Amino acid sequence: MKRILAFAGSNHSRSINHQLVTFAATLIHEAEVTVLDLRSWDIPVYSIDMDPDETPGRITFLIEQLKEHDGFILASPEHNSGPSAFLKNIFDWLTRRSKRVLDGKPLLLMATSTGRGGASRQLPYLEGALPRLGAEVVATYSLPSFNHTMVDGRLSGEPLAELQSRLATLLAAVNQA
């Protein structure tokens, strides 16, 4: 059975992007899904002064997880029209350890926010940056108005149908890889 790693690039204890990625994982039955919770990870800010002598243990663990999975779901919060500093810091560490740590594997890129923009302004940045890590971004999904759209931890109607469509695209790409 194919394996998918799902995680959110947020260290917020009540991350709505983590909630979204966790919900998306429950919709997948054709693959084994591991939801990785990064919210409590304490990763030092990348500095060339640490490189190459020291790799944080969490980064080493993440690299191993990325190797063991066939595809990925990444949900990213938006901070000032870009990804979170937390996620960017993880990317900085990963690119210094491997230029293609995602190894050409398919990735569904998601974002949500409490506003009507659904954290979508940062998606083009990530679509451009993730291939540098070796990801093949096969689909994107933006969920606006999280507090009104995600009710009792679930989506319904058009937002749910759209998410299921993006997940089907990911699964097709994972199965073809």
Automatic annotation (TrEMBL):
Coiled coil: none annotated. Pfam families: FMN_red. One of its GO terms (molecular function) is FMN binding. It comes from the Bacteria. Residues 3-140 form the NADPH-dependent FMN reductase-like domain. One of its GO terms (cellular component) is cytosol. This is NADPH-dependent FMN reductase.
